[in-house]
Amino acid sequence: MSKQAGFEGTFLVGASELDIVRDVSMTINGNLIDVTARDSGGWRERIGGIKEFTYTVNVIYKKGSPAYQTLRTALLNGTKVVDVIFKYKGGEGFKADVFVDSIDQGQPFEDADTVDITIMGTSVPVFNSSIS
């Protein structure tokens, strides 16, 4: 993959681009389980546990943004959002189903109104070199 600037990526909620994004990050965690016992020879032993991923998104508030409205409605109704896509400029990226965990909206005195959205995965994030 060639180098690219962060602003060249896209974040899609279904078919709608969340075009008001300032920053977005994806964190994938593989939790480890400690199985250390007296027979471990003085060393910690671990096995792989349950994995999870989270998107953290910072957006500029824009009334009427379809993707933002979908995320907000999903949080308020406790419903799953299908086919959220974290995509790089060349077309590769991750696609998964998610739940919105939180929305934190601010109105800073000397900056744009912003919204921080935490989104938790509810399926395996599928990586594809040509995602759509």
Structural class estimated from helices and strands = mainly beta
CATH topology: Pnp Oxidase, Chain A
> Would you state the CATH class?
Mainly Beta
Name given to the CATH architecture: Roll
Unreliable spans: none
Shape: globular
Q: What secondary-structure arrangement, pairings included, does this model have?
A:
Blueprint: E1 10-13, E2 16-17, E3 21-34, E4 46-60, H1 66-77, E5 81-87, E6 93-106, E7 114-121, E8 126-128
Antiparallel strand pairs: 1-2, 1-5, 3-4, 4-7, 5-6, 6-7, 6-8
In short:
The chain has 132 residues and is mostly beta strands. It is built from one helix and eight strands. Strands 1, 2, 3, 4, 5, 6, 7 and 8 form an eight-stranded antiparallel beta sheet that branches.
Describe this structure in words.
With 132 residues, the chain is mostly beta strands. Helix content is 9%, strand content 51%. It has one helix at 66-77; strands at residues 10-13, 16-17, 21-34, 46-60, 81-87, 93-106, 114-121, 126-128. Strands 1, 2, 3, 4, 5, 6, 7 and 8 form an 8-stranded antiparallel β-sheet that branches. A hairpin with a 7-residue loop joins β6 and β7 (114-121). The radius of gyration is 18 Å and the shape is globular.
Give short descriptive properties of this protein:
132 residues, Pnp Oxidase, Chain A, eight-stranded antiparallel sheet, 1 helix
